[in-house]
Structure formats: C-alpha cells, structure tokens
Amino acid sequence: MKRVLIITYYWPPAGGPGVQRWVQFVKHFRDFGIEPIVYVPENPHYPLQDASFKKDVPSDITILKHPISEPYALAKLFSKKNTQKMSSGLIANKKQSLLGKLMLFIRGNFFIPDARIRWVKPSVQFLSNYISENNIDTIVTTGPPHSLHLIGLKLKQQTILKWVADFRDPWTTIHYHKSLRLTKASSRKHKELEHQVLNTADTVVVTSSVTKEEFKNITPKPIKVITNGYDASIKIESQLDAKFSIAHIGSLLSERNPIVLWKTLAEIASENVDFKDDLNLVFAGAISEQVLENIISFGLEENCKILGYVSHEKALQLQHNSQVLLLIEMNKPETKCIIPGKLFEYLAAQRPIMTFGPSGSDVSSILKETNHGKYFPYNDGELKETILSFYSDYKNNNLKVVSNGIEKYSRKALTEKMARLLKDI
C-alpha cells in the first residue's frame, strides 16, 4: 500500500458538495493500493453540516486534526447573516448593505487567499514533524479553500515530497472573485500565489476541461482532469412524484436566475389549466430572495415548494422522485468550467435534466455525451417546446431517459483513476 497524506478543510460533519469528493476517494482508495491519511481542522466553521457523510469514512483510517483560528466566528458577532452568506458562497448579491460591503473588503484584502490562511503556518509545523516521523512521500492538497495549497507549497519547499494540488474550483477566475472588492495589490498577490502553486506542484488535478485549458496558460506542469461523480453503491427506489415536478437541488444564488424559465413556465400555465395544476417547482437548498421574488412575480408562488437545506440522503431521494431535474449556473464566462457535483447525482437518478448556463460549458458536453437532457444558454431557443415535450411524456407516463456511458463517472471508477495518478507520480 502506498501511503498518501490528504490535506482537506471539508470533512464530515461538513455538508454540501465540497466534502463529498475526497470522502469518496478515501472510501475506495484501499481497493486500489492507496492507504489514505487525512488531515483536517479540529474546530472548523462549517456553514452546512450533514452527519450522514460520516458513514462513508472507513472507521480504521488515520485522521489527523489540528486547531484552526477562523475569522468567521468573530465576524458573526457583527453580522450573522452576512457571515453565513460569505462562508456559504452566497456573496453575489447586488443589494449589499454597507456592513456587507465592508466585510467583503476585509475578507478579500486582509485574508489572502481566503479566511483559512491562519491555518497554514501551524499546519506546516505540525505536518513537517508527522511526515518525517512516518515516512510519508506523497501529499495531496484540495481547494477551495486555496490556502490549503499554501500548506502543500511550503511542505514541498522544505522536503522532497511529491505533491498533487487538486482544484475542485479555479482560483482567480472563480465567479465570486470579482465580488471580493480586491485592491490592485491584493489581486496581484492572488495571481502570484496561484502561479507559485501551479508551478511548484508535481501534478495539478482539475475537475473540468475548461479549467485545464486555463491552467495550461500558467504552468507547464502535468494537468489531469478527474471530475466529480456519483456513488454507485447507493441504491434508491424511485417513487416518481404524482405532480409534474421540476426540482432544483442546491443553492440558488441571485445570479443563478434564468428569468426566461420562469417566464416560459408562467406562459404555458396561462395557456394550459392542466399544466398550471400539475406544475410543482421544488427547491431544496438556500435560495436567494431575488430569485424567489422573480418566481413570485410571474405568478408561480402557488406552484413552489421551498424545502431549505436537506440531508444528502433526502436530496438523493428527491432527485430520483422528480419528474425533471433542474441545474442552473450563472451566465458568465467564468462559470463555463464549473461542473456541479450534483450533475453526476442527477445522471445517476435517471431523470431528464434541464440546464441553464453559459455557452461552451463543460456541463453541456456531458449532457450531450450521456443523452440526459437539454442545455440552454439563458435564451428561450427550444425551451418552450422542450418543457411541453417533457409535460406530454409525463401525462402519458413515458417521461424517461436512456443513459449513455455514465458508468465512468462512478466514484469507484474515478478513484481508480486518482489512485493510478498517485502511484505514478
């Protein structure tokens, strides 16, 4: 067994998509000759928690913990609401208060690259000793938060370790980077750190082809694409909703707001009484006030079911029960590289997917490849025809998809790919 140290911030009981990638790798690593050792914060600030992920962690692996000092605990004393939004990623809000703007400025310019920067120095000291005493020769850092890559950078500079930097999201081109109110000096510092990490790591791993092409302009180092995926071991019995349900699982930011969809649904509802009665819009996860206001403005309030955050297990059941699954990304060039983890769970649910996002997105390619739904670049195009076609199939008890090659996105197949990379490095 090759022993690999994995440095991650998100770990059970953390909830949300950030934790699942490495929990699933760790779950399957031993099947492919990797013995994982996981390093996590002892007292982290997790905006979402989901205890159900604990069952996926092998009970006998080594988990190292070290205290972390985070500013979010202090920030909550001034504004719990703004702190929750920032730590959850809900910062793309045009109606920010003066306090909210100030907190973003402090977050962006005094904590570079992010609010976990104060964990870097104590982690390097702690891990340096552990690595030397336990003959570790390979480490993985995964971000965001990208400050964890600075732990890898400093350990790499001090030792002869092999280092894999795993980017679940890009760094300086992620959609919320421009919202941080960075000064020119701070923006330059982000770029310098990004360049250092990408050019010092032995191998860089990304979750999308678009990010790979972006990083190729910064570093000649090897860049591998290993996407997120779905857990094929989870067996769920579908109980399809009686209503014509269109479900979105996950956070809906203010800019994840396809007005054309709400408008088209309202238009069909005004033309077809049965459609109006059958339609059920299901939202599981945080939803911005602006999105909700827009939906209500089109007269769809009675058709909405707002569930708030639900456990991962319930989210999976909702996906399998829904007639149609909705995936929404911001209509920005920076989000072409974003492949939400829930896309792969949507694929596993075997339900039609309706997606909105920017042209040229990796999501569009995956949908086309797997034959799982329709992708719309925030315009009506064939939207009305698609919804009516889905609805007609629903009325005829024939709404389904015929999958094509989703098996390569199973967590176990992806773990084999990651394990091969770690052995060959």
From TrEMBL:
Report the InterPro entries cross-referenced here. Answer: Glyco_trans_4-like_N
- UniProt source species: Patiriisocius hiemis
Question: This protein is called what?
Answer: Glycosyltransferase family 4 protein
Glycosyltransferase subfamily 4-like N-terminal domain sequence ranges: 108-232
Pfam families registered for this protein in UniProt:
Glyco_trans_1_4, Glyco_transf_4
> What superkingdom does the record give?
Bacteria
Annotated CDD domains: GT4_WbuB-like (cd03794)
